[in-house]
Amino acid sequence: MDADEFRRSGGEMVDFIADYLQNIRQRRPLPAVSPGYLKKLISEEAPSDGESWESVKDDIEKVIMPGVSSAHTFREPLLASSPACTELEMIALDWLGKMLRLPQDFLFSGERQGGSIILGGASEAILISLISARKAAINKLRCLDPQLTNGQALDKLVAYTSDQTHCCMEKSCLIGLVSLTILPSDTTGALSWETLEAAICRDLARGLVPVFFCATIGTTSTCAFDNLAELGPVCNKYGVWMHVDAAYAGSACICPEFRYLLDGVEHCTSISVSPHKWLLVNYDCTALWTLSHPQHWQVNMGRRFRSLKLWFVLRMYGVKGLQERIRQDVHLAKQFAQMVKADSRFELIGDVTLGLVCFRLKHCNCVNEELHEKLKSDRRIHLIPSSFKGKFFLRFVICPASTQLQDVSFAWSVINEITDGITRHCATRRAKPPGSCACITIRHS
Amino acid sequence: MDADEFRRSGGEMVDFIADYLQNIRQRRPLPAVSPGYLKKLISEEAPSDGESWESVKDDIEKVIMPGVSSAHTFREPLLASSPACTELEMIALDWLGKMLRLPQDFLFSGERQGGSIILGGASEAILISLISARKAAINKLRCLDPQLTNGQALDKLVAYTSDQTHCCMEKSCLIGLVSLTILPSDTTGALSWETLEAAICRDLARGLVPVFFCATIGTTSTCAFDNLAELGPVCNKYGVWMHVDAAYAGSACICPEFRYLLDGVEHCTSISVSPHKWLLVNYDCTALWTLSHPQHWQVNMGRRFRSLKLWFVLRMYGVKGLQERIRQDVHLAKQFAQMVKADSRFELIGDVTLGLVCFRLKHCNCVNEELHEKLKSDRRIHLIPSSFKGKFFLRFVICPASTQLQDVSFAWSVINEITDGITRHCATRRAKPPGSCACITIRHS
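^ inputs. structure came back:
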């Protein structure tokens, strides 16, 4: 959708809302539909090709509005007063789950207890999963020993994750009061199953109860991928709830060529993907699928009608359209990586699998830090740096929706221009005796 | 704002967004403003009279956009990349805090550590407060006895609330794993300070640590009000964190004549009010003020730019405009209560202080349940029932923004029509011998 189409369709939605409010007395306060009404009106899978805005808009009145209450418009958690809100979310998330080829058991349309919800972020998804795992574990411990208090049971529980997992895992453990063991990742930034199993066995030997493990598909720092097919069986062996945080990289798995990243997801108990990160859906929209309905699906009671925007995007782009956008972004990232590789002053950190390129000057950390500081004060481009195994580097990420080759080339020209200034400056500095340059002590490369 | 104004201004905002996206390459990825830039551009208090949409719109480009990054538009939690988002929230919540005449210590502009945040609902506000109180209590216990584990400390903690508190308090305690004691409310639905103090003393005598109390200003069932001025000193005496859930009724406290409901708030540690309930702000928008910055301000890391809608509403209605809307809604509720009182078949449950009227047929519960069922299947109006001290009743609430006397009269006419059918039916039933009517066993009135 280009800017002019956006103007037209946005204007139509404004009119739709104004009409709705102006004529609200003609609507009934409670919808007359029966539970499950929406399933009969919507196809079971996302369209392969994108549809026109007109056909989506028509369905708002035909398909959605009959299941919306006038009294609680767009903010009602109850199935009774806003079945459209609940049912569209179930359908849209089943669509997305199928696009990601998640096992049937994660879907509402599956045979088991699986299901999903749209949350505000990966943090809430991990918290909800952790709380569910904690509850099951405490119940089990107290069933075996009815004298055990909540606190005594809690003291036995351990959760695991790697040092490359997003800090929201730590935050969830602080809120859930579950001890967290942070395990060292391997040279690629992934956690090996041997490391996980060794930690679990060590804790079991100490009388502790391993309860939760959070794997990451696409780490924040370097976009590394934990191997679910190897880690999953370890979790299953010891009865550990395995959650997969695929907030960013999960979206790419709608492309068959990237789906291997989720191989092994059938061993997991829950997985979260944030379409607001890379699937053209506006913030916020994080999908959590789980094999068993949690006691609490979310922190708050009320719910916004977030499935509408997901449904709009899935229909207007279609599966092929979204795959094409992902591939285009990955292609741009690879083009940027080529530019970096072709310049002998720079090196890449890790592989470029998706839209993130990690790179640095073949130099000490402090020169790279200087490059970052200068880019920051220059203000023409914005790069967020990171460190991995002691190496400070810059991260270039293709932001979805609007990035083009001209933007990538522009960014590279700015980096070059700033680098030229730095290397000149650094040459002067390196002329000094080694001991006088603080940077030498933190060199790792 | 009427429907035509909404069409015009909504269309302008669509154009604004389209222009923004179309010309995004002309913007810098990071804003050039310094921290605190916004305070200098915005007045310290909400306007008394409403302003035009034009003046608000002008300020979006002049005041907001200089503090917005193009790279992370409207979804960036970082002060660095979107200072407008962070700073506008601080300013708008200080405005609202001043409108509610909260003690200075709750405000960013105060001298102490107070501050506030917009969250998604009262549940999250209570959870954040509870987790903060829990953390402080566990730290203190483990400081006194370094051998104590987290679980052992946790087992000592107790939270309190009344049987009229929203169930989200129970949910917060389940997530936070803190024991909750639910105390009986008095005949008005409020919790007496004597009941709270007796419970605290009983637990202290058992070696437990009272840590958190959630008071309610405007309970869900009957809109009852806990007396903060009496309960607060009890909490202070025993070092208990007192949170005030004023989700619905808090909004009314912008009117001087209702501000007494918050008398005693100076004894509390945190308070939450949901402008999405009664201050014309779209869902979701819950304000949490607290005296001390919590370790975690919210569950998720990312944040939407929710302060914009709060700021728009405060400016376009002004304090007087919003007070007028509250008064109008309360007046409508009192008009409905008059209709109920004038009909000898009905009785009111409790007083009508704000926008909720609780009423029932002067009859057994099952006849009232029948009235509710019939209204539900009739579908012309939507009332949510409740029970208090064994009495089942109906709840008529004035929904903000669009309810008029004609709607109230229409609702009353529907209730009358349905009641006529019921009382006839019931007359038949009451002719039967007492024992044959199941309803008699659950009669309370």
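Chain B touches chain A through 66 residues (CB under 8 Å). Residues 307-342 of chain B form the longest helix (36 residues).
thumbs up if we can close this ticket
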